[in-house]
Amino acid sequence: MEKQVIKSLLTHPFVTVLLYWIVRVYSRTFRFTVENEETWLAHLQGGGKVLLCAWHQQFFATISHCENYRSYRPSIMISQSQDGEIVAGVAAKSGWLPVRGSSSRGGSQALKILVEKLKETGLAAHIVDGPRGPAGKLKHGAIHLAQATGAVIVPIYVSADKAWYFNSWDRFLLPKPFSRVTLRFGDMINLTATGNPEELERQRKYIEDIMLPGLIR
Fold it and tell me: Choosing a second label site near 36 at 20 to 30 A (CA), which of 7, 52, 87, 210?
């Protein structure tokens, strides 16, 4: 009964709108620098498919800027947890379609839906080590999405000159108000289609090694 009440409150339209505006106003205080965005945008606008990939630690600081992509009708997988209810509501208000599921619950069905949406619109995002970690361990979801859709993987890295780090499994990053925040997109990565489990694991490790230096320890 208590869980139902909490879920009802978290998904109430007023609460969703309030949280969305809190995130938006707070993020507006950041002094953003965006790097290396033009190349993958040109690929997307030319008919290519793009999968943006980020560590769970850093996704909050991307929310405000990623609202600029709403015209592409992008999708993102978000867990079915109570925390996920909050994130899903904010994502939806930001113009992103939240597909509910994770590696721990509902992930297989969510991946199928996300594959179809990525094929349809050309743009999706994925939190590669979420929602429970371990931090820095890239899971197979991103590889599956890229393989199934022909999308290029574009890593996202966030840094801030002033930030708080939560005492959580991922050392969650929250930039302080008026801090300088850099949102850097990595180079596009093409993966060769394969059904070989060893090759899939090699590709997973390859992407993980590329993204690990951007994780703040």
Answer: 87
* The total number of structural domains that make up the chain: 1
- Cα diameter, the chain: 50
Question: 153 near 189, Cβ under 8 Å?
Answer: yes
The tens digit of pLDDT for each residue in 47-102 reads 999 999 999 999 999 999 999 999 999 999 998 877 788 889 999 999 999 998 76
Which pLDDT score, from 0 to 100, does residue 108 have?
Answer: 82
Backbone angles phi, psi at 134, to 5 degrees: -70, 155
Q: Which two tokens stand for residue 115?
A: 């594959």
How crowded is residue 48: how many other Cβ atoms within 10 Å of its Cβ?
15
Closest CA to 117 of 85, 149, 78: 149
The Cα–Cα gap between 185 and 166 comes to: 24
CB 130 within 8 A of CB 122: no
Tokens of 64: 């405000």
At residue 74's C-alpha, the angle toward residues 68 and 79, to 5°, is 115
HEC profile for 168-190? CCCCCEEECCCCEEEEEECCCEC
The reported pLDDT for the residue numbered 1 is 46
Look up the domain containing 25 and give its range. Answer: 2-214
